[in-house]
User: What shape does this take?
Amino acid sequence: MGKITAMRKELDVKNVEQHERSFIRGLGVTKSFGEEAGAFAALGPVDLNIAQGEFVSILGPSGCGKSTLMLIMAGLMPATGGKIDVDSKPLLKPLTDVGIVFQDHLLLEFRTALENVLLQQQVRRLDRVALKRRADELFDKLGISGAQGRYPRQLSGGMQQRVSIARALVHDPAVLFMDEPFGALDAISRTQIRHDLETLWMETRKSVLFITHSIDEAIGLSDRILIMSKSPGRIVKEIKVDLPRPRPAYLGDYPEFSKYADEIYRTFEELGVYHFN
Ligand code: ADP
Ligand code: MG
Assistant: This one.
């Protein structure tokens, strides 16, 4: 039995149990790009379950299919195989009860920070007064109060990403998808924004799918970490992160932290992502 097959076998039992009570359920999801004969297998098969209010991270090497998986789970890209349920209903069109944050902030340059956030209100035709109130609250909680009237170019990278998070949450969606949202930020800003996101999540308890390259970030934020193999990415390991919240800036004081980190590094070595020695 191949290494990946053996790792996945171990996961299957857990998956069946989780599948029943999950809010977001992906079963046997695959994606190939291109014509049938010469198609490039980019993803899967992947089983993915996220419970209501659960924070799940996906950690995997570049190019393994993480962004593809997220787009498929959001209904923004058709899967080649498998099926997806959200709230017990098959996902057949783009998910609407969702907020998405990408690595690039994708803010409109000609709109102020507040107008960018309120785009959600216009597109979704929601109550402007209520949304404006909620936006101001989010600016405050994300540590950018006072930045409402500024244009994206007048904001630092960290602030731009905070505005993107506010935009993703202002309509109070049940689900939050984040694709390497802090990837372009410096390490110090990343630690702060990680904490601010955790605090906000603790108040709102969205179901989160968080994609990252960062082991610290995954351990610092997640209830569960799913590790993906190299392309075509499959989920080969699950790590339940049992640490109290809110978690501190420096996680190294927890003995469990090094246990989780060690397990992640060892998995990457087994998968051939790392070659040390
Ligand atoms: P990750 O986010 O893990 O870095 P991606 O999901 O972006 O990986 O991509 C997985 C693989 O699929 C990569 O090899 C990428 O080049 C390929 N890929 C992604 N999107 C497309 C597309 N629209 N057409 C063809 N190939 C794609
Ligand atoms: Mg990606």
Observations:
- The pocket of magnesium ion (ligand 2) is lined by residues 66-67, 179 (CB under 6 Å).
- The chain has two domains: 1-97+175-240+266-277, 105-173.
- Strands lie at 24-33, 40-50, 55-59, 81-86, 89-90, 98-101, 175-179, 207-212, 224-228, 235-240.
- The chain has a mean pLDDT of 91.
